[in-house]
């Protein structure tokens, strides 16, 4: 028996699973410890139940995912509004350096993935779904790019990418603390700790604001305008023969709008745009996870294991021998390395959690918190999207 759900029923179920995931995250320490997102918890639980029901021939589900694509585009367009050159410049030299370091990791993650594709006998595009898409990108980027890879004829891409993203969250969280601890002890960094560079932490300060309906309306309007104009940008890029996800156009337009706003021409309500982005991210992730076809992983178990172990090894070596030296070989650099393990294999909250565990044992690093949070939250999704797109076109 097949149970079909229309657009409204599908998003309704996604919201229920999202709320269930929030409840479970508060109740189960494992989920809280490793910063597993609520939509991943609820959606993955439903996907497991769906797998069992399918294997026992009880019922199969079919969903209308129209709103998943819409919310995905809305979220990544909101990300585009973060790409402020003014903020990047104001963040200082270390922020600029770390953007470069994080982008280099993105390139290497994809290079390792496609480089091992022949070894594990899978298509390079499927192997790519264990690269920077789930690692640096996390579940959000995985759910966004994988459908485009599947549309190119690669079955199971979304399941592989989202499963890899879940692995990355746990592995990155477990790796960060030990990496920093080893570097601090080996180089006696705590005793060498000096006064840090002056940084403008006001960029990360949270200010209390009164709920303003007009600002929320303007946030929605500006995102929708960017999405509208972005369709033409995407069509123009597609006419050149370059394949990329549909949301890239909206992302680019949003970035242009943000930088025009920074010049004082008009105002983008950044806080409200951020909230809209968070809501749409949760909704599209819940839908992506609940529609996972876990049965597609059965034949890919061993190849995936090899590819994911390779990514974990790369992250360890990169954080130790590239992130740490380039970021200064000091205590702050060691803490940044811990943070990089977290968001380089999962998400920014995992990176912050890694740095917090190091700070609890040794000492707080304002530079590390500032640099990792700024790059992880504002800039890496932007550069990662273009690197993934380049690899897709090279191996598609």
Mind explaining what this structure looks like?
- There is one protein chain.
- The relative contact order is 0.19.
- This protein has one domain (76-197, 213-273, 297-395).
- By secondary structure, the chain is mainly α.
- It is globular and about 65 Å long.
- A two-stranded parallel ribbon has the order 1-2.
- 74% of the residues lie in helices and 2% in strands.
- The two termini are 36 Å apart.
- It has helices spanning 7-27, 29-33, 38-55, 66-80, 85-90, 93-115, 117-120, 124-128, 138-151, 157-186, 189-192, 213-238, 247-262, 270-290, 301-326, 331-344, 348-361, 366-395; strands at 2-5, 60-63.
- It contains 18 helices and two strands.
- Helix 4 runs parallel beside helix 13.
Question: Main attributes?
Answer:
396 residues; mainly alpha; two-stranded parallel sheet; 2 strands; globular
Q: What is the strand and helix layout of this fold?
A:
Elements (H helix, E strand, L loop, with lengths): L1 E4 L1 H21 L1 H5 L4 H18 L4 E4 L2 H15 L4 H6 L2 H23 L1 H4 L3 H5 L9 H14 L5 H30 L2 H4 L20 H26 L8 H16 L7 H21 L10 H26 L4 H14 L3 H14 L4 H30 L1
Largest sheet strand order: 1-2
Report on the biggest sheet.
2 strands, parallel
Structural domain tally: 1
Give the proportion of residues in helices: over 70%
* Secondary-structure element pattern, one letter each: EHHHEHHHHHHHHHHHHHHH
**Number of strand elements:** 2
What percentage of the residues does DSSP assign to strands (E)? under 5%
What's the rounded overall pLDDT mean?
89
The dominant shape is globular
Output the radius of gyration. 21 Å
Enumerate the spans where pLDDT stays under 50 for 5 or more consecutive residues: none
Structural class: mainly alpha
Helix segment tally: 18
Cα separation of the termini: 36 Å
